[in-house]
Amino acid sequence: MNFKKLVKFNINNFIPYKSARSMCVNGSVWLNANESPINNEFFLLNKNLNRYPYPQPKNIILRYSKYSKVNFNNVLISRGIDESIELFTKIFCRPKIDKIMYFSPTYDMYRITAEIFRIDTVNIFLKNYNNFNYDIIRKNIKFLKLIYICRPNNPTGDIMPKEILINILNICKKTSLVIVDEAYIEFCCYKSVVHLIDKYSNLVVLRTLSKAFGLAGIRCGFSIANSEIINILNKFIAPYPIPTPVCNIVNKFLSNKFISFMKKSVLEINKNKNWLFKKLKKIYFIKKVFKSYANYILIKCISSDFIIKKLESKGIILRDQNKNFGLKNCIRISIGTKLECKKLIYELKKISYKNIF
Q1: CB neighbours of 257 closer than 8 A, spacing ≥ 6?
Q2: pTM recorded for the entire structure
Q3: Is the torsion defined by CA of 189, 190, 191, 193 positive or negative?
Q4: How many angstroms separate the Cα of 19 from the Cα of each of 24, 104, 107, 238, 245?
Q5: What's the number of CA atoms in the CB half-sphere (13 Å) around residue 230?
Q6: 243-272: per-residue pLDDT in tens?
Q7: For the chain, which terminal residue's Cβ has fewer other Cβ atoms within 10 angstroms, N or C?
Q8: Over the range 35-71, which residues count as b (16 or more CB within 10 Å of their CB) and which as e?
């Protein structure tokens, strides 16, 4: 049997998301997945694994609502932000009728999820925020259901100004949900817009424990929105989305003790980022170092392919962005420990001009 014929669209034309961990490379310094370089080690004994977990554990929602300073009824737990993206797409969008909008270059799962559910996309290339074109939103407003804004943006590290976001919310307040992806917000917590949830009923904020909390391995995320949206999501989310061991870990890490630990880790990572930013600007073949509000730095250099392969041979793994529209010869560097950052700079300085050419 030709199983490809059973798939609802041409699988040969489908470009899947390539996660950092799916790339078969060997290395000792992993600076390609925007993970926390600080490991969390503790022993956890799980009981009652013969029973299903609560679909939406109240103790976790209570702790996260307190942490994020929103009402208990404004929070839904999911298997990472990716499940939330899938939920919003399949609940609110009709195939071949409705549209989603995003601003590239950005997180590719917005596009991929839409493609899987056969939802049309409006991809706006956003070089900068000067003279933002609101007419593109107005032009597509009739069937525009979801607008994704990654803030801080992955992979550029920049952040859409709050006034532009508010203008977008006002333009489509009766037609579209504006979904702000705050996966990296702990690295610039003062930039969060979660406090606007009560004022704008069409605002949704997505959060995760994968980045600043250093819990990428447990796949836990949150949708924050008005209670009506949360109630709708609860009707369609898969049963028992969060396993019992994950619930226990999350409950522990949302305690005051571990939130304080997370904040100290963020300070350390931001300090390493500032150090790395200054050092990268002095490397002769790096043409631009992008300002970043997240736990990574984007650079534009001469011959990114050569640089990535050269560093791979030294055990340093980075994320190639060369194929993203507008990011030719760009590389994203996750912020590691101080030792890892020093090793990266050391190896970059060893690359000679004649080797590149």
Answers
A1: none
A2: 0.91
A3: positive
A4: 11, 18, 11, 23, 24
A5: 20
A6: 999 999 999 999 999 999 999 999 999 999
A7: N
A8: bbbbebeeeeeeeeeeeebeebbeebbebbbebbebe
